[in-house]
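Subject: two folds for Thursday's group meeting

Dear M.,

Sorry for the delay on this. The cluster queue was jammed most of the week, so I only got both jobs back this morning. I'm pasting them in the order they finished. Each block is the input sequence followed by the predicted structure tokens. Could you check whether the formatting survives your parser before we put anything on slides? The first protein is the one we discussed after the seminar.
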Amino acid sequence: MSGTARRYSTQSCSAAISHSVHRRVILGVARSSFQKTGLQSFIKRKTSSHVSTLRSNLSKLTFKWRCMVSKRQETQLGSGNLLDFLNLINDSTKYVVTLAAGGVLVWYHDIYVSWCLLGSVVAVYVCKALKRAINMQRPAYARKQDPGMPSSHASSLAYLAVYLAIAWKPAQPALAFTGLLVAAFLIPLRVILGYHSIPQVVIGAILGALSASGWNMFGQHLILPILKSNPTCRQLLAAATLAALVCYMVIAFRSK
């Protein structure tokens, strides 16, 4: 074989090998990409399936709990006096708490009470904004049909209980513990009486507790030191808190 023929043969073999290697690389990358995409799709489907199953199970659990409580009350109480009493407590909670907060503000009107109550009003409207943004309906058996995630009642009660526990714990631990017990009794009524599901109440309580901790920390480290040394700022805080509380009272008393 001549030198020219050998050279052409060598070049052909090199080209064939290069083409084969290049083809295998492309196929490997494509296969890897396909496997990765398939794995991601599989994980996404499984995660979505598990979340849907968990949400469905929680809804079923809430519904069964509600039916069990109603049936037990009907069979054991007969006239339903306990249910009526719990409804009375639940319906009067926001009025009693709001009037008590206003009375405490008028009686003490110091920067600590003002800051706490201003934060409670802010937390209420943050919760209501989240409720509209999430737009999750209440359970099918609920007495109301507006969005219910998170529960604003649970959020407000948890805020006041946690904030007062933080403020009272060093000096009056018994009062702090009593406030937590009262909130622990009132918050589940929203589920028992058929206003919310369990997740809606739990998320509302968590939101209120986190709001109380964050608002207290924000005030202790940044706002309250300024208010202590500035009388004008203290007056502005008291006026803002009173105005916010009055607005909330008007809205609360006008709503059902």
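Second protein, same layout:
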Amino acid sequence: MLPKQPSPSETAQDLHHILNVGTPNPQPDSGSECYPLNWLELKLVKASERNARIVRRLNYITDANPFAYLLGIGRDYQQAREEARRDTTAFSMTAATQPLQLPLEELKQMFPMQQMEAMQKEAVLHMQKRTYPNEARVREMFDSNVEIFRETEICKQIKDLARYTFKQTTCKKIVAFGGGTFCSPVSNGATRLHYQHAMLIVLREVWEEMHKDHAQLKIPIFIQDPQYLELDAKVAAHYGMEVVNGNRSHQFGFVKVDEETMVVDQRTCFPLLESILEYTRPAAILSPYVINPDKYKDFPLSLTLRQDDRTLVVPESNIRGSATTNSFVKDYKEKKIRTDGLDCGQSYNPRDPNAHIGQDGENGFSYLGASPTMYVRRQ
């Protein structure tokens, strides 16, 4: 059976807000930390100091958010960032004397949101409201896709991967990044995002099965994504998952990650692995692809954006990707899913519009990533 696809409804509750969604960080911090963290040093400081430094360091993710409208900035902003990354004269690897701050008001003036962008944003929200008018509708569709997911080959392999992992190491929580909204009005998007969240439920079930002699033990699931809606938070709570605030000053998902955490990368679009490895060594990391250190790079400290005759310096991540991932492959052992046995459809063919959709994926790739791989920290 193929996954259930969304269809429009005409009534809606106004729960489709996107900013400041999820459990807030009780100690928010709006500062910026330009320099890479040292995870061994952070083990020696108080929890409050550790958490504050993590928040300041990870605030760069909001600054460089590919969804510029979340900052009230036009999409030309992201294009200018990409152009600056390709122009070696536009970025700096030199350390700053003071942490760089995002000049938000100047960016709004330099890259204003155009009327068409605002209209497109409203159109998407309107479609979400029509397709998912209330919590019951979302849960109905999600429940259906969870049951379909349970029958897939990729789910069976995820269960095997989870059993292997929980035998190898101690995990006391699951923290997932990049899951996206439960309420995608696009059919293939809804399937992928529902499967990604269904996988978290399956991981928890395997953990509980392996700890059935200690029924009082529970493994919490925290999820963070800039596109979560208020409605998503309500739906997630019903399934025992907690949406945490990932906005600037909060970064609460990152604060939750420690050495007894399974981190799940649900196809994020920022340097998730490198960022987390700066401040801890999680028990396990489920990646949507095989990690090859040769493909990771160092990011500059800042970028100089250009628009017409104006220039503006904005912070970048200053992530040291190559050194971090080289260390990672020494500290972790990998176990991959067998993708050759998955039903991921074929390349899209307009003559057969459904041939590219399979139970486990579409266009030849699984819904959980090109090559889902578990990395378990060596003891």
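Two things I noticed about the second structure. The first helix runs from residue 39 to 42. The CA atoms of residues 169 and 283 lie 6 Å apart.

Cheers,
T.
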